[in-house]
Amino acid sequence: MKIKFLMTGLLAFITASTFAQKGELNTAQTEYEKFEGLRSQMALALPSLNKAKESIDKASANQKTAALPQTYAVKASVYGALAELDTVSTTSLPLFTTADEALKKAKELDTKGENKKLIDNANIILARYQLNKGVKEYQAQKYDQAYKSFEFYRSVLPEDTNAMLYTGLAASNAKNYPAAITNYNKLVTTKYSKNEGVYNDLVMLYLNSKDTTGALKTITDALVKYPNSADLRRTEIEISLQQGKQKEVIDKITSAIANDPKNKNLYYYAGLVYSNIGDAAAQKIAKAPAASKAALQTEKDQNFQKAADMYKKAIEIDPNYFEANLNIGYVIISPAIDAYNAANKLPTNQQKAYDAAMAKANAQFDLAKPYLLKAVELNPKSYDALNNLLTYYKGKKDTANITKLNAQIAALPKQ
After folding, report:
1. Whether pLDDT at 5 is above 70
2. What pLDDT shows up at residue 2?
3. Residues 333, 365: contact at Cβ < 8 Å?
4. What is the percent of the chain where pLDDT is above 90?
5. Cβ–Cβ under 8 Å, residues 249 and 237
6. Which of 2, 91, 105, 277 has the greatest number of beta carbons closer than 10 A?
């Protein structure tokens, strides 16, 4: 009986001793939990955080509690909170490093998951710290550093759409295209509200990586999800034209029009293709040998006429279609500018030819006028619309309206 009594007494002594050894650790956790509960009132919360730090430092120095997973978990949370609150990078980073090291040790030792709540909490705190650090680095154009900070944040919250976006954005600016592509490809599989724009950026990333196959696949996938996206369709057209696939993209749009003849956007896209082909011919004219200039001019004029026909069909469906009105004004006024410039290059002894050329130019300018005016009416703050109309008035030598349009353009917000 005495032996039993002695053993019972010894057990009681050991238990009491263990509790005494864990006193500072328990105090640290209790004070930290008080801090978390008072976060919305930081003046009241900070004393508890400071007490938690004091106690966890003692627990970490005590050989009886230093190696406990709870000690590391509490330390990670306490030091993580201190780092997050410190706005000076030179002093906050050592706090973060201490917290990060403690967190890794806590994960390693907590095999039974007894400190999961503390560990998860510390994870989130450190992720927030890196997020805020990354934002500052990004704003300072330190894109490589920002990418690493955002990548830490993303590793903790892998399904967070902001984490994917920020990491991809920083990687893109750092010209780390593989990392940017990986994050954007993940992002477009989510329900992120601005994925239409993300697809467009993803296409550009593939193109910057010289991966045309990836770009074409991405734009095709994007248009399945966003068939009426003007930006995505424009990107598809530009890629197709760069690849010399004019016929393929025209055939694709023509087929779509046959299935949906009342879709104004399809006519607009067809017009856009012809406009781009015409523009490409126009850019070649200046540097082309004399023997090739006439053929290039014909190519330009024919494609601009086809573009105008398509834009007209879009406008028939929707007279207030701004982009169609803007673009048709441009493709109609372009031949007028060519005729005007040609007339002014004639020798002074060819008055009859000059008069005929100017008459032709004036007639062409007037064909464009209704669309130019409509585009400005629909969007009076569009630089392109105002500039096209200004070109018309210059061609007509209308000084009063030239002055008026110049003033309107000058008053536009600076881009």
Report:
1. no
2. 44
3. yes
4. 66
5. yes
6. 277
DSSP secondary structure code for residue 72 in this structure: H
One-letter amino acid of 367: L
Angle at 330 between CA 301 and CA 360, to 5 degrees: 55
- In the numeric block, the tokens 């008055």 are attached to 351
Q: Is the pLDDT of residue 60 over 60?
A: yes
* Rounded Cα distance, 196 and 200, in Å: 7
Residues in the chain: 415
Residues 6+ away with beta carbon under 8 Å from 69: 105, 106, 109, 110, 114, 115
Alpha helices in 209-321 (DSSP H): 212-225, 230-242, 246-259, 264-285, 290-317
Cβ proximity of 126 and 156 under 8 Å: yes
183 within 8 A of 167, measured Cβ to Cβ: yes
Closest CA to 266 of 255, 276, 275: 255
Question: Distance (Å, rounded) from C-alpha 187 to C-alpha 172?
Answer: 14
**Residue 40: band (very low, low, confident or very high) from pLDDT cuts 50, 70, 90:** confident
Token look-up 């007037």 returns 366
